[in-house]
Amino acid sequence: MSRKGHQGAERGSKELEGTARSTKGNIFVVSLSVADLVVAIYPYPVILVAIFHNGWTLGNVHCQISGFLMGLSVIGSVFNITAIAINRYCYICHSLRYDKLYNQRSTFCYLCLTWMLTIIAIVPNFFVGSLQYDPRVFSCTFAQTVSTSYTITVVVIHFIVPLAVVTFCYLRIWVLVIQVKQRVRQDSKQKLTQTDLRNFLTMFVVFVLFAVCWGPLNFIGLAVAINPFYMAPKIPNWLFVLSYFMAYFNSCLNAVIYGVMNQNFRKEYKRILMSLWTPRLLFVDTSKGGTDGIKSKPSPVGTNNNQADMCV
């Protein structure tokens, strides 16, 4: 084999290895998607019922279930975004130890731990009695004025601490990216793949939008918790409603971000939309994809998201 061919094969092998390693991190992205979808399964439909009847008519049991699933979605999203940031930090900043830290078994354990912590974080709401119907937003949600100490704890543990962890991880990644950019002018071996950079930027945008969407509601809750008798009447209803729906609108944004920043997602979105007009195309494309996969398996180097290494 020629030297050029050997270098191409070696680069293809590295790209394949990088794709396999990145796939472990994608498990948390799928988990984040599940957390975003939870609100659409039950809470949103019962909110529509409450809006239609101009009040809650489903009883306390459904109120508690709706509030629990709403919290499961919110806290699950927070913890999964944190898990993704830690995973990206280990993948980029500690690549030599990544395979040991995120093997198949440990990755599954991290995922289970993320959801266990999510459930543990929600359970105290039933003892405090903070899941109540709020007529301003037509939904059973976390009541910020029930317990001052508990509200502060919720904001700190469910927002401020994860925000600090994610910020630390992404700052360290940005520092490394800048260092690689400076070194690459002198040493051509210091490179990051285009796929790594794209995945990092996608999840960074997810984090920024999450902080922007959830920040107002959490800061309102923190202000009310510190001085409920003075601050609660001072918060306009329109401001609370705006911050509330802005926060839960964040669940819809992630799919848009994936579509805008990832060509594979865009292709799948386009195929799904086309299949809605002509459903038979969905089955034709699926069958064709399976046949093509049997005939020829493309090299990772040839795919759009695994092009040749790009200097940052």
TrEMBL record:
It is found in: Cell membrane. GO terms for cellular component: plasma membrane. This is Melatonin-related receptor. Residues 1-258 form the G-protein coupled receptors family 1 profile domain. It comes from Pelobates cultripes. It comes from the Eukaryota. The chain crosses the membrane at residues 27-53, 65-86, 107-128, 148-178, 199-226, 238-261. It holds the Pfam family 7tm_1. The keyword Transmembrane helix applies. Belongs to the G-protein coupled receptor 1 family. The lineage of its organism: Eukaryota, Metazoa, Chordata, Craniata, Vertebrata.
